Structures are given as C-alpha cells and as structure tokens.
C-alpha cells in the first residue's frame, strides 16, 4: 500500500456520519425507503397500543360492573354503560320477545345467544388494530433484512468500482445496511409483545362476560316477576 492510501481512507471514513440521522441521510434511496416504512409502521403500532390500553381499561371496569350487577339476585340494571349496557339491553330485548309455546330452556338459550351476539360485536371492536401488531411483528424483521441485503449489495458494488477492500470504504455502507435490520427489530419486538399481552387481555375480558351472561340468561328465563317486567319495559 502506498503512502497516499492512508490519508485517502481516513478522509473517506471522516466523510461519513455514523450517527442514526447520518446513517439515514446517507443511505441508498431504497434502503432509506425501507427505514421510512419501518418508522411509519412503528408509529402506527404504538398508536394502536396506547388506544388499546385505554379501551381495555374501560372494558375491564365494565366487566367488573357487569359481574357486580349479575351477583345481585333479582336486580337487572338497565343503566349499565359501554359493553355491559349493550349486553344487558340485548338480553332484555330477547326477554321481551317471548313465545308462550317455548320452554324455559329454549327461552334461556335464545336470551343467551342474543347477549353473546352483542358481546361478539364488542369483542371484534376491541380486537381492531391487533392484526396490525401481528403483521408488523412478523414482517418487520424481514423488511429490515431486505434493506440490509440491498445495502450490502451496494457496498460490494462500491468495492468493485473502487477496487479497494479497505474497511474505510465498506464500513459506512454496511453500517447503513445493518441499521435497517436494527429498525426492523425495534418495530417487531414491541409489536409481538404488545399483541400477545393485548390479545390475552381481550380473551380474559370476553371470558369474564361469557361466564356471567350464562347466569343472567338463566335468571331472565325464569324470572317473570314485576321487577323483571319493569326492567324490560324501560
């Protein structure tokens, strides 16, 4: 190696900013596009996570209120709000639509189906956005890997053009490429963890409602007293 190569390599290394912003700005347009896509996916995932935290907290409160109402024998509270309120009103609507020829078991099944149908609609709303977390968690590493492969290909092209295999020539391009994979992992890991946690919370909320729907359905099916009629008339 001649005496001029060391200063040239030092100048090449100094000309590259290895900070996060610098790696992004110096990246190939395709690698840069991959990074932007991953950042947008990350923002979308965190938006879903915070929205779900708020909604699931409210759903848990409503599930506890529904449980407390069902535990009070002979009392059907039509002033329940949110998910619990829609389930109660679905049950009372089914209670009003009585057929004298049906048995108590048939009436109970019909009331329970109406309440579970209302619950299913609410659960679908709670699950909205979770597919985005699952998709981001499974695809973000591969999208980042695509950016890495593309960036490394460009680094090898630079080596071929410059005919210089020194680290100063290839390191910046490889660093930019690996940065794309790092962003992909930063997107994927929280998305997978959040999906598992939030989907588990939704399942627990649904299970809690289903348990007490059966109790309330049995009560409505057998109770034809004044209090039940008053509740149904509201």
Automatic annotation (TrEMBL):
Key word NADP present: no
Give the keywords, sorted: Cell membrane, Membrane, Protein transport, Transmembrane, Transmembrane helix, Transport
Signal peptide coordinates = none
Instruction: Enumerate the transmembrane spans.
Output: 30-50, 130-153, 173-195
Q: Which residues form the MotA/TolQ/ExbB proton channel domain?
A: 81-206
Q: Does the keyword Protein transport belong to this entry?
A: yes
Major localization listed first in the record, in broad terms: membrane
Membrane topology term reads:
Multi-pass membrane protein
Compartments, record wording:
Cell membrane; Membrane
Family to which the UniProt record says this protein belongs: Belongs to the exbB/tolQ family.
State the name under which the record lists this protein: Tol-Pal system protein TolQ
Which organism was this protein described from?
Answer: Methylorubrum suomiense
Q: Which classification does the entry list for the species?
A: Bacteria, Pseudomonadati, Pseudomonadota, Alphaproteobacteria, Hyphomicrobiales
- Record gene name: tolQ_1
């Amino acid at each position: 190696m001649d005496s001029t190569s060391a200063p040239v390599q030092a100048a090449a290394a100094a000309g590259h900013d290895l900070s996060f912003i610098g790696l992004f700005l110096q990246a190939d347009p395709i690698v840069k596009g991959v990074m932007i896509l991953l950042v947008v996916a990350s923002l979308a995932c965190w938006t879903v996570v915070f929205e779900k935290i708020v909604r699931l907290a409210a759903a848990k409160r409503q599930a506890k209120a529904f449980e407390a109402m069902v535990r009070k024998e002979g009392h059907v509270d039509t002033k329940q709000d949110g998910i619990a309120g829609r389930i109660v009103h679905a049950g009372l609507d089914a209670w009003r639509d009585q057929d004298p020829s049906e048995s108590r078991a048939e009436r109970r099944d019909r009331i329970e189906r109406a309440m579970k149908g209302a619950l299913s609609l609410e659960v679908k709303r709670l699950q909205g956005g979770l597919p985005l977390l699952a998709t981001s968690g499974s695809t973000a590493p591969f999208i980042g890997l695509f950016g890495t492969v593309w960036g490394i290909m460009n680094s090898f092209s630079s080596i071929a053009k410059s005919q210089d295999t020194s680290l100063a020539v290839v390191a910046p391009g490889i660093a930019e490429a690996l940065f794309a994979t790092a962003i992909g992992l930063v997107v994927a890991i929280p998305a997978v963890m959040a999906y598992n946690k939030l989907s588990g919370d939704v399942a627990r909320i649904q299970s809690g409602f289903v348990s007490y729907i059966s109790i309330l359905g049995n009560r409505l099916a057998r109770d034809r007293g004044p209090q039940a009629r008053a509740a149904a008339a509201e």
